[in-house]
Amino acid sequence: MSVISQNLQAVRQQIAAVADKAQRRADEVTLLAVSKTFGAQEVLAAADTGQRAFGENYLQEALAKMTEVQAARPDLALAWHFIGPIQSNKTRPIAEHFDWVHSVDREKIAQRLSDQRPAQLPPLDICLQVNISGEQSKSGMTPDEALDAAPRIAALPRIRLRGLMAIPEPQDDPALQRAPFRQLRALFDRLNEQGLRLDTLSMGMSGDLEAAVAEGATIVRIGSAIFGARDYAKQ
Ligand SMILES: *Cc1c(COP(=O)(O)O)cnc(C)c1O
Fold it and tell me: What does DSSP say about strands 124-129 and 219-222: parallel, antiparallel, or unpaired?
């Protein structure tokens, strides 16, 4: 068994165990395999074990990888999620090639993705990225901005607003890890009370997966625990 398939199995077991402890069903949590900086071969190795959803941060790298994977396995239907920072002049290829975008941090980006989503594709599924712990350096809407913009974004014709995403400041202490996830969940509940129909909380990475699942994550974005440490110099 390859290292990637062993890692995937371990991560799936970890998700199942925490979900069980939180009295949730394991199938309420989708595992997004974050393949940034890794190649088509690694994606194919993960796909061989049944993994279908992949997350990417860098547009050019992602498009080249998709082409390579498609050429190697034309039969394979994968879901590609864009999770990186978005420049407004890069929205068109994102709207054309991805199934999901987790990192919508401005209303203008949502508008452009809706305008540019090709008519023959289903609406693009999106999450609003929220800067929940208020760090200066992190991208994301403030909770107040998200409350204000979400109803207008949800009304755009060619995207479907599915939920919220956050990347809290890294914390080693599991007790401290839970607080920002709980805040994101509270914002999600508030938006649904206001009549939106959100079903997605994209939260949790390799280092804080358990805290995120305990607080209600429906998508966890896991990179290094599956593919190993990233080597950015190789890109
Ligand atoms: C890289 C990345 C991940 C995966 O991080 P790991 O710590 O390797 O699991 C998840 N989400 C986002 C937005 C990322 O950029």
Answer: unpaired
